[in-house]
Write a structure and sequence with these properties.
The structure is a single chain. With 77 residues, the chain is mainly alpha-helical. The chain contains three helices and no strands. The chain is elongated. The model has no long low-confidence stretch (mean pLDDT 77).
Amino acid sequence: MVNMFILIILQQFSLYYMADDNVLERFDDDLVNFKKVWRVASLPFEGYKIRGNEVAKFMSDLKGDLGMGKVKDPKVI
């Protein structure tokens, strides 16, 4: 019962007090996109791995900034 109470409080907090573009929402979107691209890239290996020569294509197929959108100077990471 206590877990349900905590869940409701956290859900209400995330709905009404967090910004629309918060870190958790971006992470969830990036994770869904990663899974879609991984599924296609790892099809020959039943989802366990991808070929080494396909890593560059895999990374380019990922959409979004993946948490790097606010980096001002690319040399400073």
